[in-house]
Amino acid sequence: MLTIIGCGNLNRSDDAVGVIVAQQLQNYLAQQPHPHVRVYDCGTAGMEVMFQARGSTKLIIVDASATGSDAGAIFKVPGKELEALPEPSYNLHDFRWDNALAAGRQIFKDEFPQDVTVYLIEAANLGFGLELTPAVRDAADSVVAEITTIIQQNV
């Protein structure tokens, strides 16, 4: 089972890129179903990422990044490199997808995917707004095309 999860906030311009990629892939799967592929928009809910990933053999996460690189730069990173155990907290808003990777592996063990890839797309604007900037929109289209190829190979 391949699970694809888009993360981000639709109200913060380029931060929405992961959600928009997930929505585009959901539309693709509505037209061309693949029974062993699931796509979720998890917004900013790290806990949901952990539960949706459970039972998958392969996991892809798409999110925005803010590293100071050129807007629209795409980073394809093995999930193991980004796992981070959460700091002790009573606030689930602090539980992000990188925490979900580490905690999910500890909690679900063999039911959690070992094959995890994260696509990070460098944002130009993380302020309030409903549109992606052009460079990020182009990068999102490239990531959708790459993941669509992965889906087609996952038959």
CATH class placement: Alpha Beta
Mean pLDDT comes to 91
Give Rg in angstroms: 15 Å
Per DSSP, the total helix count is 4
Helix fraction? 25-40%
CATH fold description: Rossmann fold
What's the arrangement of strands in the largest beta sheet? 2-1-3-5-4
| Amino-to-carboxy terminus distance | 10 Å
In short:
By secondary structure, this protein is of the alpha/beta class.
List keywords for this structure.
single chain, 155 residues, alpha/beta, Rossmann fold, 5-stranded mixed beta sheet, 4 helices, 22% strand
How would the blueprint of this fold be written?
Layout lengths: L1 E6 L9 H15 L5 E7 L2 H8 L4 E8 L8 E5 L18 H12 L6 E8 L11 H20 L2
Parallel strand pairs: 1-2, 1-3, 3-5
Antiparallel strand pairs: 4-5
Question: Can you describe this structure?
Answer:
By secondary structure, the chain is α/β, with parallel strands linked by helices. It has one domain (2-153): Rossmann fold (3-Layer(aba) Sandwich), CATH 3.40.50. 35% of the residues lie in helices and 22% in strands. It is built from four helices and five strands. It has helices spanning 17-31, 46-53, 97-108, 134-153, and strands at 2-7, 37-43, 58-65, 74-78, 115-122. Helix 1 (17-31) packs across helix 4. It is globular.
